[in-house]
Design a protein that fits this description.
Helix content: 40-55%
Bound molecules: adenosine-5'-diphosphate
Largest sheet: 3 strands, parallel
Strand order of the largest sheet: 1-2-3
Distance between the termini: 58 Å
CATH superfamily: HUPs
CATH class: Alpha Beta
Shape: globular
Radius of gyration: 17 Å
Strand content: 15-25%
Structural class: alpha/beta
């Protein structure tokens, strides 16, 4: 059985991520979507929130399993019995970072291959960070994220704004 791991922060999941997940899940028998629990970053959504959003969004995709991981990606890939890492590429700006990461993962385990999938043109221009910024200023993110993410983002932004207001007084 051919399996692959699609790792990322998914803070939050965008339609660009979903497109890569759907396409990757068609070329392998099982796709593990691996949400990075990185203690050195301060995400907007906790790892539990990010995992539960993805599980809800992907509940009808039988060959996709959502998990969280911490530590080295290659260790996680081996732990699920896979040897393929999937990453999405939006263009040259992603490329240098992704290429470097693929090389360092390869130096850690040469049995693990990184497979790049080019982003669809309609998703080329947005990232999780941009989506958060637009949501903070009440911009329209309807085409950028699934409905469940939109609802949760709006709630988070209200809390953030309330915190900023009380903090500023
Ligand atoms: P990371 O912090 O590991 O970069 P992200 O959640 O930002 O995690 O991204 C995970 C993967 O999804 C990366 O390979 C990234 O290039 C890809 N990706 C991010 N946004 C998009 C998008 N809009 N379209 C396609 N791929 C994307």
């Amino acid at each position: 059985m051919k399996s692959a791991v699609y790792p990322g922060s998914f803070d939050p999941t965008t339609n660009g991520h979903l497109d890569i997940i759907k396409r990757a899940s068609k070329i392998v028998d099982k796709l593990y979507v691996a949400v990075l629990d990185n203690p050195s970053k301060t995400p907007l959504f906790t790892v539990e929130e990010r995992v539960s959003q993805l599980k809800e969004i992907l509940k009808d995709h039988d060959n996709v399993k959502v998990m969280s991981f911490s530590g080295l990606l290659v260790d996680f890939v081996r732990s699920v019995g896979s040897n393929i890492i999937v990453r999405g590429l939006r263009g040259v700006t992603d490329f240098s970072y992704e290429f470097q990461m693929a090389l360092s993962n390869r130096s850690l385990d040469s049995n693990i291959e990184t497979l790049f999938i080019s982003a669809d043109t309609q998703y080329l221009f947005f990232s999780s960070s941009q989506v958060k910024e637009i949501a903070f200023f009440n911009g329209n993110i309807d085409n950028m994220v699934p409905d469940i993410v939109k609802t949760e983002l709006q709630k988070k932004m209200q809390v953030l704004k309330a915190q900023q207001e009380t903090g500023g007084k």
